[in-house]
Every structure is written in C-alpha cells, then in structure tokens.
Amino acid sequence: MRVIAVDDEQIILDDFVEMLKGMGEVSTVEGFTSCDKALKYISENEVDVAFLDIHMRGMDGITLAKRAKVIRPSLNIIFLTAYPEYSLDAMKIHASGYLVKPAIEEDVRRELRDLRVPPVPEGGSRLKVNCFGNFEVYIDTYPCPFKYIKTKELFAYLVDRRGAFCSNGEILATLLKRISLKTSSIRRRV
After folding, report:
1. Which pLDDT tens digit goes with each residue over 75-130?
2. Is residue 119 domain-resident?
C-alpha cells in the first residue's frame, strides 16, 4: 500500500511516518509539510492512502483533500487531526477515515483495513464483487460486462459457494431451477 502523510508540524509528521514504516501492509511512505509538494507527488505517483492534517498553514486539509481527489478519484483520504469537530466536513467529501491526534497504531491499522476504496495490488488489477443490492462485478473501478446473463448467475453462484466444491450437476440444477421458476411465473401471468 502506497501512503503519504501531510502535516505542517515536522516532529509530528516524522513520528507518524516512522509508525507507518513499521506496518507490514504499507509498502511506501512519503511525508510532506507542504500541501503543494504533496499535490505534485500525488499527480506524479500512484498513491493509495493520504493521511492529512486539517489545520495547516496555507492550505487546509479539507481543500487539499478536494484537490487530491480531482487528481486521483480513488485516493483514500484519512484525516489525522487534533480537531474532532471537523468530522462532518470530512464525511461530506467521502473520507475513508477520521482519527484524532495523537495517532495510536491500532487505530491506524483499523483504518487501513477498512478503506473506502481498497488499493490495487502492485502490478495487478483488482476484482471487486458487490453482493448487496444488485450483484455487480468490477475490475478496478469499471463494471465487468457479461455477454450472457447465465454467465453472471453462474459467477454469483460460485461466489456464494466461497470456493467450496460443487459438481457440474449441482451447478446445472441451480441454473435450470432459476429458468423453470422464471417460466412458471410467466405462465401464471398469462
């Protein structure tokens, strides 16, 4: 996971960056005291998560988050601030998290586990399956097209099985059962 941290207080920033470097899930960490340098870095490098302070000299963290999201819409923003009263503003821009200083490693790990947009593994794409509401499959952030509806139903069935063994007969019976249910409901309407 590629992470940046932005705070205008160098000592706090250095301590936080050191904490992040000790976390196994974090592959790269860059710290910035300048919002402009952070934006330049975001525009030139892949970044999965940005930890931002809210009250900083020059540009505030909310404005920085809005500008960063224009550059990288899938960027996870986690605010790390001494001001809990800005949490509503943070949620309005769909922040992934909000932590109050001083940061505790356990809380940081929890936020990194529960990101709004899970990071893409380096060198690969990410498959996301949405099972709530409509069943949808995404590759990175793009919907995965299915040529046939039965292909999508088969994929949904296999996702539901969670890797458990299922025979061809079992799959066929499940898919044919759905066909027979649809045709019987059509016959009743007529």
Report:
1. 999 999 888 888 888 888 889 999 998 889 999 999 998 888 877 666 666 778 88
2. no
Can you tell me the distance from the alpha carbon of 144 to that of 80, in angstroms, rounded to the nearest whole number?
35
Question: Coil, helix or strand for 99?
Answer: strand
Q: Are the C-beta atoms of residues 47 and 72 closer than 8 Å to each other? A: yes
Based on the number of CB atoms within 10 Å of its own CB, is 172 exposed (0-12), middle (13-18) or buried (19 or more)? Answer: exposed
Residue 81 backbone dihedrals phi, psi, to 5 degrees: -145, 165
pTM attached to this predicted model: 0.65
Would 144 be classed as within a structural domain? yes
Q: Domain total for the chain?
A: 2
Give the DSSP per-residue string, 117-165: SPPPPTTS--EEEE-SSS-EEEETTEEPP-SSHHHHHHHHHHHHHTT--
Q: Are residues 134 and 86 in the same domain?
A: no
- Two tokens at 165? 């063994």
Average pLDDT over residues 172-180: 73
Q: In which band, very low, low, confident or very high, does the pLDDT at 5 lie, cut at 50, 70 and 90? A: very high
Q: Which residues on neighbouring strands pair with residue 127, listed in sequence order?
A: 139
| 120 belongs to a structural domain | no
Residues 40 and 12 in one domain: yes
